[in-house]
Amino acid sequence: MNSKPNIHAMIVAAGRGSRFGSSIAKQYTMLQGQTLLQHSVARLARSAYIDKCLLVVAADDSTVETLDFALPIHYAIGGAERWQSVQAGVESIANTGADDSDLVLIHDAARPAVPIQDIDQVIRVAMSEPYGAILATPVADTLKQSYTQSNVQSELANDDIGQTSYPYIKHTIDRINTWQAQTPQVFRLGQLKAVLHHVSEYQLDITDEASAFEYLDLPIRLVTGSRQNIKLTYPDDAVLLAAILAAQS
Ligand SMILES: Nc1ccn([C@@H]2O[C@H](COP(=O)(O)OP(=O)(O)OP(=O)(O)O)[C@@H](O)[C@H]2O)c(=O)n1
Ligand SMILES: C[C@](O)(CO)[C@H](O)COP(=O)(O)O
């Protein structure tokens, strides 16, 4: 195993933020005087392993070029699904002549509070792995699988409590050995290219790149990260992120 591979950092910022529901793409939400995307680049800039960054943005993005970043920036145009944005970034990195054993670090623009020590730790672990490693946190809550049943007779008419769409509990999911995936996710370039090709060929539905390796039974290491590394997904997350960024600064 090459113990000192090159690291190619990529931030995916080509999403729409439909669950966040703002009129501007959520990566341009301002918190603590900067956009989320600028915060995320600034976090990577503080890692000794990273000296430049590829930003994967939407084809119609007219905001990114108006911003200053803490690293030299290159651009690629993203796709409709997150993995397609990553694939565009991977192609761009491969076209620079990068080696298949190099590491590609993928981070969400929407995770601006990742601690620097977590970035460095997941890189160090990935360096000793044949495929890669991701940040994640053990699930802390009791998890319920749900079902919906429209014709259940309840003592209280559903309308009386103003909500007809609450589901019921099916069962409790065992949380032992259950983790919440975060980013950065760090993989060998050649392997990442291959698994994304598989996702494309078989039209797999994935929400992170580690899932592509899972489909092929390729082991990816879980590195325990901070619970502060939350993603701006729903409007409530903005309150939490603002508090986390303020506490970290
Ligand atoms: N086609 C896509 C979809 C997502 N992303 C990026 O992937 C990260 C995490 O994805 P998510 O939170 O799902 O972002 P969105 O797709 O923007 O949100 P939503 O699913 O609510 O629309 C974000 O930084 C987002 O910009 C991307 O680059 N290209
Ligand atoms: C990559 C990711 O941030 C890991 O948590 C996540 O999978 C992005 O997509 P999601 O649809 O919000 O889970």
TrEMBL record:
Statement: the UniProt record of this protein carries the keyword Transferase: yes
Example of a GO MF term: 2-C-methyl-D-erythritol 4-phosphate cytidylyltransferase activity
E.C. numbers: 2.7.7.60
Catalytic activities: 2-C-methyl-D-erythritol 4-phosphate + CTP + H(+) = 4-CDP-2-C-methyl-D-erythritol + diphosphate
Enzyme type, top EC level: transferase
Pathway: Isoprenoid biosynthesis; isopentenyl diphosphate biosynthesis via DXP pathway; isopentenyl diphosphate from 1-deoxy-D-xylulose 5-phosphate: step 2/6
Positions of the record's site feature: Transition state stabilizer: 19, 26
Residue numbers marked as site, Positions MEP for the nucleophilic attack: 175, 231
Annotated GO biological process: isopentenyl diphosphate biosynthetic process, methylerythritol 4-phosphate pathway
Pfam families: IspD (PF01128)
InterPro entries: IspD, IspD/TarI, IspD/TarI_cytidylyltransf_bact, ISPD_synthase_CS, Nucleotide-diphossugar_trans
Domain of life of the native organism: Bacteria
Keywords assigned by UniProt, alphabetized: Isoprene biosynthesis, Nucleotidyltransferase, Transferase
Function statement: Catalyzes the formation of 4-diphosphocytidyl-2-C-methyl-D-erythritol from CTP and 2-C-methyl-D-erythritol 4-phosphate (MEP).
Family named by the database record: Belongs to the IspD/TarI cytidylyltransferase family. IspD subfamily.
Protein name in the entry: 2-C-methyl-D-erythritol 4-phosphate cytidylyltransferase
